[in-house]
Structure formats: structure tokens, C-alpha cells
Amino acid sequence: MTPKTSAAVCGMGHSMKRKEDPRFIRGQGRYVDDIQLPGMLYMDIVRSPYAHATIKAIDISQALKVPGVLAVITGQDLAKYNLHWMPTLMSDTQMVLPTDTVMYQSQEVAAVIATSRYAAADGVDAVEVDYEPLPVVVDPFKALEPGAPVLRTDKKGKTDNHIFHWEVGDRAGTERHFAAADVRVKQDIYLPRIHVASIETCGCIADFDKAMGKLTVYMTTQAPHAIRTVFALVAGHVGLSEERIRIVSPDLGGGFGGKVPVYPGYVIAVAASVLIGKPVKWIEDRMENLQADSFARDYHMTAELAARKDGTITGLRIKTIADHGYADAAANPSKFPAGLFSICTGSYDIKHAFTELDGVYTNKPPGGVAYRCSFRVTEAVHAIERITDVLALELKMDPAELRMKNFIPPEKFPYKSVLGWEYDSGNYAAALAKAMKLIGYADLRREQAEKRKRGELMGIGISSFTEIVGAGPSKDFDILGIKMFDSAEIRVHPTGKAIARFGTKSQGQGHETTYAQIVAEELGIPAQDIAVEEGDTDTAPYGLGTYASRSTPVAGAAGAMAARKIRDKARKIAAHLLEVAEEDLEWEPGKFSVKGAPQKAKTIQEIAFAAYTNHPQGMEAGLEATSYYDPPNLTFPFGSYICVVDIDRGTGMVKIRRFVAVDDCGNIINPMIVDGQIHGGLTMGMAPALLEEISYDEEGNIQGGSFMDYLVPTAMETPRWEVDKTVTPSPHHPLGAKGVGESATVGAPPAIVNAVVDALAHLGVRHIDIPITPEKVWTILKEKGVAE
Amino acid sequence: MSSHSIRVSVNGAAHEATVDARYLLVHLLRETLRLTGTHIGCDTTHCGACTVLLDGEPVKSCTVLAVQADGRDVMTVEGLEQGGKLDPVQEGFWQEHGLQCGFCTPGMLMTSYALLKRNPDPSEGEIREAISGNLCRCTGYVNIVKSIQYAAAKRHAEVS
Amino acid sequence: MIPAAFDYLAPTTLDEAVALLDRHGGQAKVLAGGQSLLPLLKLRLGQVGLLVDLGRVPGLEYIKEEGGFLRVGAATRESALERSDLVRSKYPILVDTAAVIADPLVRNRATVGGNLAHGDPANDHPATMLALGATVVARGPKGERTIPIEQFFTGLFSTALAANEILTEVRIPVPPPGSGGAYLKLERKVGDFATAGAAVQLVLGSGSRIEKVGIGLTAMGEVPVKATDAEASLRGKTPDPKVLAEAARLAARAANPTVDRRGSVEYKREMARVLTERALRRAIERAGGKR
After folding, report:
1. Which pLDDT score is estimated for A742?
2. Which of A200, A752, C144, C192 is least surrounded by CB atoms within 10 angstroms?
3. Which residue in the set C2, C186, C195 is minimally distant from A118, CB to CB?
């Protein structure tokens, strides 16, 4: 795509070097733990070793003797202010600190406030808690059996562990259709719990200014405004008022969804600061992060496809048990308790579909959409792409051919799926064809056939996914009632430079660069001259934050719309300066000129100066605009990924030999940044597929609660990703852009699983649950008699 | 709990401090000397966000006691830029988009800096091995490799 | 993340260090590279009253051949071992081993002595030293003594070192002509402890017969395992596939792993077999024999 602007202006399509990098490469980023305030105290948290237990007593006397320890806060203290429980983003409730019962291992039980980090840690060690263990519920299926211990006894009248039931589609019609279908396949698919583990953990500094009654919280949050409003609603009764709450999200060391929820640590730190009147810093350790922060996945799915013998997919059914931990604290839009799972018909034109899901309570941390999942799209795509391959095996059909046969063709867009989504645009066959060409698909199949004769195991796996991002239109999307618009406020200065503030919050996605490029595209002001700010609720316009790949689709659109409002005013000023009618002016990036007399022109810089020095009478001075953008629809990025694996018959180790990713995110703002998002997303797709897992034993003890056992890939495990693009613009987005942050995490895992299964399919293997560990593979090889 | 007077040279400047025996080097740098470019990302010596040079060798400063650095030379990310000129590794990461959130970046920069001093012409495999003690969640490592290759070429160009 | 309080001293002579250990008994621990000890202290798993830092004691970092032995000072960093021209040319098994210990950053601090003295069967050098038939040199209040490596590992996290002794050197016999060795480690990712590890050091004599062989296994029990039955099955034999497969099978029989996230008992034992066979083939190749 050739950029419309020059390299000097650097609008869309330029691989502009990032404007934020100069501070990061010098180690001058400003992350929450870098900030020190005068008189600041430190908080550390006492955590439960038990997954389910009654608290008999908490003895803080020894802790208070530790030099430097000032206070120990318990649930009883918070209960005095009714702050011991708080609402979750899904309108459930969760504890801030317990008064009688703990519900998951590593749950927050008490907080130590001290004058130093080291004293706080010593204080935590000295708090003595007397627990009486209770029966633990870790299996969501057992949790639903009659007679299972009821976990949420805090909810009046609750007699089971069922949270909610959700369904969409035509249940009866789909059932009839399945009953009459020629071919049916069914597969249980479990996606275990994983944790996003961004390199910076979560934390905050709560700073309550007693004199002014103002609370400032520096916080690792992807959604600062939502947090501010939540604090005002939850703590309004203790005197916090929204105009005197300021949330500052400074530089964030990754987010990926893990920095959206309100964690108890934040609330306790705020309470501590309000009570003590000094700033209180809380930064969690990595183990606390892995063991208590919001998780992702934990979906037990049963997927079924109905098809004709010729391979036409005609029906889809998916039933899911969703393990939410002890509270539904998933950060979904409120009407979507299963997120956007109903995208599960995927890239295929499926005429009959039904999906249902039941959420279940267990003795585990609450959550869970916190791992670059696009609101459960990772789960939905894993299901459809896996069951499609199962069908291919059943029909003895090549999986590429099966997909090509069933893709929604380009002429059917906008496409209304039977589960209710209107896909804006797509060209699935082109993406898959491109991927197949890049990887040399036909040659690989020949190689595989030869290798099979020699007993060598190699596999080729495809994933052709459709993503759904950009939440979302106000008629359907809200978080705790707040609609999911997003915003941009742009002000052009007299010297022709500009500042643009947004309601989103980058955690590494490069908004300081990409948003500047959007504004540069629309106004012709060089991107280098446009300062971009996010994250301070005192100055940024209200927005819902950055997660689920919504920034470009929503806030990016707001940026374009605000810039266009500015352009409209600029036109008026230009007309005034050039003494012509507005209709006589022509726009090119950075300049209005008179039609037919191009030498009579005014640059945007000249116009900006005039806005303050020579504006038309009757018009307000200044040159700025705000836009709150309500997207008319979501956007639907898509792609085709192909993975080639070789399996070591001795150890079961899977090596990714090649991985080609062809992505389509519509019009691209910065190709370099898009590629970076894809590289990172692919790595976060490979990690759950092969390495990462958080599980619990029968006592609720976490397995994988530190980097010792929670295996984040290094540069040695990560292949060299090969990436390419097709471009199918979004018809409804002002820039034709779609968003791309999570496409690769969504699309990659099934491509890898499909490749491993493909390597073993001739032995009768149809499915393997992730993570595909060497031991899992080796066990299969042994059973099939082909282990070395 | 013993307390110790130490003298550490950091980025060429001598610093004196009195520290507890258990005080970690990373905290000496971040909290006492307020050089917050070095980051903390884990508690089990895995992530490498805390990487600094100790007597020229890249080490995880979270797993070194401040007292062990007494009398030694430490170099942090803040010491890379000299006289207003970025080091080739810094330039490489900027040019090749080797960072996104920036949190692992100082550690990556110090490891890369040390690598290129020892091995000015690393292969891709050698680069990946050298940074295998530094975790990144954002970039997928592809552009980090490119950044280091850029820096290697730049260093050659500067010498010649 | 933050250790409990402890005292710290950095003696400047070996005798001073020994005296400190002697005086403080079980309350004192040696600090060398700290890459095993400090992580434990940071998690508050294990209390220590006094850390005795060897970092200021000169003369403990060296790699040299002398008197028929490769002598490695206990404070030699793993990265130094990995990079040493002498080691790379004559003791590739040591390079194999050093190169898979943790990650490159940890190896800039971790020491060979520490890797042995920690007594962790999941560390990598123990198996290699068993295969090499190494000797450990220890210094105590009464002076120096040598401990054959087969007697060095006495239990989980415990060694033949007394509380007042410091490991000062590891001695490896200079390999005769026809020698070859290899260490293979199966790990879930770089930086992990071994799921399984196998060290083989052998000598091929006339007629390509295996004259000498040592096989050590990592992470296969409470102590590093010397696969003596496997070794016996190889002596005097020419290394054909059946012989190697049988030796590997015997090595796996000597393995006694425990189940954890790295694998079941069965899987780990089988991996001991697979790695032993592969390490044997590699060692033979390096010894100049055919694969």
C-alpha cells in the first residue's frame, strides 16, 4: 500500500520509527515502580497457603514488632468501611480482604504497611494466621454435581456453584440438522488456564492528599477512566469523589489484558493511603502475579461439526463449561459473559449453529480473559479450527481444501453469521492461498509422504481464523454500564504543532507513534510534530482503555474524526485567509489551495497560526476538536497461518521448523509496528500451545506458580516467524483499519496443534490438548509403537 | 543483620553506601542510586530484566548482593549513551523496532552490548543463545535479533 | 523476592574462610556464585545466619592441566569453562555441560564448585564429573583432603563436605588417546533444570573396543546416578547398536526419578535411556569411532 503522505509528514503506511523509544532505550521509561513520592510507604501482602479455609485468627502482634512496620490491615479493618468486598467487572462480587473464609491459594489475607520494602516483607513473614482447611473444589464438573460444597455462601440463597448460563443460536433447529446430517464429528477440547505474565507485574502507588481530599493513584492499568469511575462508585461512601480521583497510568511494561481488572492490592493500597494520609506503594512479586492475578482460558469445550460427504460444513455446535475461579471477574462487556465466543462459526459459511456455555465457581483465583484473547476469541477459534481439522481427517480431505471449500466468499460481505455477527469484510481464500504459496505447501505434502515411509514424523497445520475486535457499538457494548466508545482530543498550537490525547492506554503498542500518524494522515501535520498522551484521567478524554485490540478500531477512528472536525474549521479559516468561498478550496495533506490556482494556498501551519492571530470575526479562536467515537460495528481482522513441525521420536519434542503468518488487518498505519505485534502475538500463541499451563492439584495447590514451572519462551524456543499481509479494508472504519494486536495469539495455537496432530494422524491421532508437552507426544508414540 | 559500607563504581562514577548484607544489587541501583532503568520482572532469577554489567560481564543484578559489588564496576543502561551519542545497540533497537513496552529492553541492551564486545560478528544462533536469559513478552524476539545485527554492522562501520 | 536478614563476611584468605565456617558450624554457608543459594534465600526457603563470601579469596579461579589432571578452581565461572580453549579442545563434555547450565547470564556468576557443592542431583556437573571419574579437593581446619566423586554425593542437597570444609578444586584425569565424551540434557526450555541428562566419557582402544567408560545421570534420584551396570556392559565391547541399546536400557534401570511437571517416572526413565544412547553415540564419534 503506497502511503498518501510524504515521509516528512509520515501518515499512514509509513514504518515510522517510534517516537516513544528515545526514553526506553536510555532506561528513562517511567513505570509505576520507578516513581518515588516523599514519605512513601510500602505495602506487602500476606497470602493464604490454602485454597479453601476458614480464618480462625490473625495475629499481627509479631509483625507490628518488626522495625519499620507501621500497620497491618485485615478484612475486619476494611469491613468497618464496607470495603472488604467489591464488585467485579461482570457484576459479581469478590473479596478485597476476607473476614472469615479464603477461597483460593494465594488469596490476599492481610496487608503490611512499612517504611521500606524490606521491612514490609519481614512483616508479612511475621503475621501468623490460623486456618482451618475446608473441602476444596477444583474440578468444575464436580463443582456442578449435586452435593458439591457450595462455595459462594456469601450469596444469599445460593445452593450451587453455577454462575450463569449463556447460549446463542437455534438449539432445536441445529439439533434436528445434526440428527439428519451425513457426517458428524465431535471432539472434547480443553484449554487450560494460562497467565499472561507481562514482564512488569502489577502494582500501584496510592497517594491520598488529606488536605485537598484528592486521591491520586499511579497504577498499572489499561483502563484508567473506568478505574476512576469504579473507585468513585465503590468508595464514594468513604468520601472519594470522582472529580478528586486521579488515575495515572504511566509507562506500562506490557498488559495483554492482565492489567485491566481491579485487583484487591490496589484497593487495599488506596484504603491504606486514605487512612494513613501518606503515599502507599504496592508492587507484586512475580509469584503473586502468577498465583493470584487474573488468568485466561480454562474452557472445557465439546465441539461438533455436521457436514455433507463432499465436505460442505453445514452445522456447528459447541458446549462449554467455563471455570471462572471463585468469582466471575472476567473483564468482558457486560452483556457478553462468554465474551465474543459466538464468533465460533469462524471463517466458514455455516448455516446451522448453536453454542451454549455454563460458568462455574471453583477454588481458584477469579477471572479470566487476561491473555491477549480478544474476549474469548482464542477459545472460539481454537475450537472451530481444531474441529475443522478433525472433520478433514474424518473425510480424508486435505485441510486446506476443506477450508477453501467452506470459506465465506468475498462477495458475501458484509456477512451476517447465524450467531448474529455482521462481518465487515474478508477475503479468506486469498490469505490462505498466499500462505500456502509462501510455505510451499504442495512440496511439504510431498516431503511428508516420503518421510512417513521412513518413519519420520513431520506435520503441517493450518489455521484460518476470523477475529472480532473493536468493542464496541453502544447498543450492545458496555462495561459496568459505561458504553464502549473511545475518544480523542486534538489541539493544534499556534506554531502548527499539535497535542492529541486519547482515552486508551498503550502498554507497548506504540500509540505515541501510530496515533500521531493517524492525525498526520488527516491534517498533514508531520507526525513528528504531534505529541500524543494517554493515561492521565485528569487530562485525557474519557475512554474505555486498551485491550481486546480496540484501540485502532475505536480510538484511532476517534482520532481521525476529531482531526476531520479540525480540518473543517481549518477550511473555514483558510477560506477567510484566501478570501474565497469554502467550496473553492481543495485539500491535500497539509494544505488548502484554491481550485484552479494552486499557488494560492495556505498550509495547515499558517492556518493554525491564524486561528490564534487572525481568526474570522464571529468564529471562536483556537483550533481543536474532540470526538467520542461510537463504532457502528466491530471489525473483523483475519488471517491464515501455516505451521510445519518435526517430532523427535525419542523425546517427543516438537520443533517448529517453519511458521508462515499471513494477516489482514485492513489498512495499515505502521507496517513495522504491525509486524511487531504479530511476532509477539505468535510467540504468545506458541507458548500456550507448547509450554505454558497453570493447573491445580486436588488440594487446590497451584502448579506452575513461578517462572520455574510457568514456561515463558526464550529466544531459543521461539522460531523465526515469517509474516506477510493481505489488505482488505474495513468498509465502516474511517481509516479502513481493523486492529491486529491479538490476531496472532488467536490464530497461532490451532495451527501448531493441527501440525502436531497432522504429524501423527496416520497413527490414528485426532486431537491433543495443549500444552503439547514432549511427554504427551512421547506417550502417544509409545502407545502407537513408534517411540525410538 | 550486618551492615556494610561499600563503594561501587556505577557507569564510571564512584558511589558510597551503607547497606544491609541482604540488600540486592538491583535495589542499590534502583532505590539508593535512583537509576531506575534496570528493572525487576521476576523473583526466581529467570527473566533477566535486571541485567547489568558487573566488571564487564552481564549478570542478573537481582541475584547479586550489593555487598558483592563492593569495589567493583557496574554498568547499567544509563551508561550506554556517551557524550550525547547513542551506543550502536541503542540505535539498533530503535531502528529495528526491537522494543515495544520497553520493560525488558535495558536488560536486552546490556546483554547485547556485552555480546558484541566479546563477539562482534555473532550469527543469528549465537545472538539467540546470548539473549536466552532475557525474557520478552512483546516482540517475539525477531526484531531484537535484527536490532543486534544492526548494531554489529554499525560497530564495524564506526571502527572502519 | 527479599531474603530474611543474615550476616555477611568476605574473608580474604582461604584459611580465614575455613575458620569462619568452623566457628559458626551449621549457621554459616559458603557464598560463591550465589546462583543457587541466593534464589533460595530470596524465597525464604532455608535460613542462614552467616554468609561467607569466597569472592575476595584469591587463587580459586583457574583452569590448567598439571600432573596428569585438568585442575579447575572451585570459583571458576561456568562461562569461563565454556570459553576456555583448553576445555573446548580436550574436554568437550565439560563444554556440553557448562553450556546448558541455566542461561548465559547465570553462567557469568555460577561456579563449577558451587554446582557440585550444592548437592542438587538436578544440577548438571555432578553427572559429568561421575562420568569423568573426577576428584574433589576440600580444605578444612585440618588441611586438605581429596574425595573421589563417587563418594561425594551423599543425599539430597548433601555432600561429603563437612560443615567446616570448602570445596577448592575439581580434578579430572587428562583423557588418554581414543577418548570421547558428551553430555546431553533434555530440558523443557533454556534455563530449566534437566528433565533428564546423561553424561558419557569413554576410551576406545584397539579394535575400537570400549576400554573405559563412565556414565552419569542427572535428575534421576536423590543423588546423581552412576550407571555402573551400564558401564560394565560396555567394557571390552565394540560399540554396535545392540550393545549401546542394552547399555542405555541398563542405565535407565539405574534411574530412580520422581514425578513432577517435567514428566512421569516412566517418561523420565525412558528419557534417561534415550539420552544415554545418544550420548554414547556422540562420545564414540568424538573418540574417533564410527556412529
Report:
1. 96
2. C144
3. C2
